[in-house]
User: Fold this.
Amino acid sequence: MVRIEKLCIDLDNTFRCGQTFRWKRQEDGSWLGNVDGHAVRAVREGDDLCLYGAQEADAAYWRKYFDADSDYEKLLSCVMDEHLRTAMDACPGIRVLDQPFYESLCSFIISANNNIPRITAIVERFCAIAPMDENGLHAFPTPQMVLDAGEDWVKSIGSGYRAKYLWEAAQHMADGFDAQALRNMSYPEACECIRQFKGVGEKVADCVLLFSCGHRAAFPVDTWSEKMLMQWYGMMGKRPQLKVQAMEHFGAYGGIAQQYLFYHAMQSKLKKENNEK
DNA sequence: GTCCAGGATACTC
DNA sequence: GAGTATCATGGA
Assistant:
């Protein structure tokens, strides 16, 4: 078991906020996950995060996965305002995860013009060809597993027009794409590089760079972020212009702010809809 | 039937 | 370079 002390993570908010689609909540409030083939059960005990099934030797890996050495209040103090404060108070304890690259890439290719429940369902079917762990969760497939399963199989999981993007991504990865190199590039360089993948536009690129490459200035602008930036921050323009303004405004850790604001915007909308019924 | 969902791409002007 | 049609799918 690996214990990460005083992380104060909110597992529900972290795993439901749209950055990952594979963790599964159990009735007792714990969450089962399979990361890089490692099966774990995440449990909040007091202020600590306990990862049952994780090896002590992998403690550093898990600290990095949960971004345990970053103090978000401190990192965002210079851009704190009433909206970010409200979002962080309403949806506390979100950790911006540092996930395996290929899983993040495929997940956000699938996310294009899609909704979270359906993304989750498609990702689950995508994982069915990978080995199952002792908790009954599949690993995320390797590119080679996808290539072995065939393009017709990729089409069969209901990913629609994104199937060809997933297929080509597996080929590009198998050809030796160096995902690790993205971490050492500047943000603009990494952004340009990752857009080699078909189906990866500006927004998907930002999600992958933020959630699996350590680029925490990346500020994904989707439908929710777009509404949020206009309604809460008075920004104007199309998405590319909004993104430029947002990155300028929120700075080096803008992606973390974005994740709180995005999730809160979505939650607010949900509440509003429920009240109207 | 229409609209929407963590958009991207190819095409037109 | 800025608009626009098209791309699958399923739930509201």
The longest helix of chain A spans residues 254-276. Residues 18-19, 108-109, 111-119, 161-162, 165, 198-204, 207, 220-225, 239, 262, 266 of chain A lie near DNA strand B (CB under 10 Å from a C1').
